[in-house]
Amino acid sequence: MTFPSGFLWGASTAAHQIEGGNVNSDWWQREWGHLPGASVESPSGDAADSYHRYPEDMALLAAAGLDTYRFSIEWARIEPEDGWISRAAIDHYRRMVATALELGLQPMITLHHFTNPVWFARDGGWHSDAAAERFARYAEAALPALEDVDLVCTINEPNMVSVLADPEVGFPSIGLPPGVPAVTETLVDAHRRAVQIVRGAGKRAGWSVATQAYQPVPGAEAVAAAYGASREDVFLDAATGDDWVGVQAYTRTRIGPDGPLPIDDAAERTLTGWEYYPSAVGEGIRNAWARAGVPVYVTENGIATADDDRRIDYTRGALEAVASCIDDGIDVRGYLHWSALDNYEWGSYRPTFGLVAWDRDTFERHPKPSLAWLGEVARANTLVPA
Ligand code: BGC
Hints:
single chain; TIM Barrel; eight-stranded parallel beta barrel; three-stranded mixed β-sheet; 13 helices; binds beta-D-glucopyranose
């Protein structure tokens, strides 16, 4: 299976999950009980200290054979107080972009990956009428960091952001809570404004949606369609007319007449408790293409496991599904694995998604065999059957 020429191969991360010391974000404040929210197993702390170690992290990806690195810039660092922009933070992210380019990695930048500045959260967060305007102002302020960047993701998984807008809601293991309709509208508005700003600067804009492969049991088709409408489709529809749409897929959700069904007892589960289901990404791509009708990038796909052979199996299965979408004529332009590094999985360090592990005391990096494996696939632009 050979992929189209120019197909991007990479890995993704998010600032709060790897940088460390993101003290001005609402997540940090929640982790320490300074803002309302469900309690966490452990705080993010220093994370992987990638704020300082990003050159080493990027060099590992490039040396393995990958050509793209998706990372997020942190709003809480760039605008730590309402209306005040840190030039030093902008410079930091400019250096990250420059480092990626020097290493031969195309940087894909996410403007918002779940975390908000504390001031934004305290002032209503995404519930505030001013939220979309505030986000647009931040997007504008961030442009100098994006000078040499082509692909920009405005908001990561707006469907999860809508769910997380209720601070008491944690990450579910089956299905997705419905989200907050008014927040969904605000996010679509924020996205549209940011797309205009980013495009005005000559970049290609899109956003990345968590696709859940909602599969109806016979007779539950209408229930599944209704379930997916507010949790997935509304966000894919909002990508119509964008330059691209991102698909982020991990598992499937089977839907019965009363909603999501429990995972089969016999099914293999990953460290997040999700069903091992590599072909989910194909279903996500197909739905994104059918609804948004724009080029698709897989901006996240991966598995939390301590068994790196299983990570390779999973990724192989996922890439087979990606290849079959391409065979069917869908314009898929890249595959970015989640995640470059083991990272802070929103409350815990236990679920390990990384192609690279690191020592919790010394931060020393330990690339896993899966990184070399994916790098080989990338270099060959071909998936050789097992
Ligand atoms: C998010 C990541 C997260 C991953 C695994 C996605 O929902 O974008 O931040 O770590 O899935 O849960």
